[in-house]
Design a protein that fits this description.
Length: 108
């Protein structure tokens, strides 16, 4: 498998796991602190979605710099790769959030 495909898959699942894991652990914390876990899980999933995206693509602003410098130089291939990394990380974070919403809505 190419390194590009491998990185896209990793970015997707890292972002997905951050949202899902954060929401589940937040729900456990809510139980311990006697708060409603469902609402806490939904709040956490919504709040950490953007942070999951940032963590999956490297945790810094470097991907944006790569896009900018390559676009200005006329090298579209590296810029398109970075954009695709961001898109797949976003999809992972979004799917994690949607899974948490689905699990929290299917009570009873």
């Amino acid at each position: 498998m190419s390194t590009f495909i491998s990185k896209v898959i990793l970015d997707f699942f890292i972002a997905f796991g951050i949202v899902l894991g954060g929401a589940l652990l937040g729900g456990m914390g809510a139980i311990v602190s006697l708060q409603p876990p469902t609402q806490t899980m939904l709040d956490v999933a919504g709040r950490i979605k953007i942070w999951a995206l940032a963590a999956a693509v490297g945790g810094t602003i470097d991907p944006m710099r790569v896009i900018e410098s390559n676009m200005l130089d006329g090298n579209l291939s590296p810029a398109i790769k970075q954009i695709l990394y961001l898109i797949f990380a976003f999809l992972g974070a979004h799917m994690g959030t949607e899974l948490v919403k689905w699990v929290c809505s299917s009570r009873g």
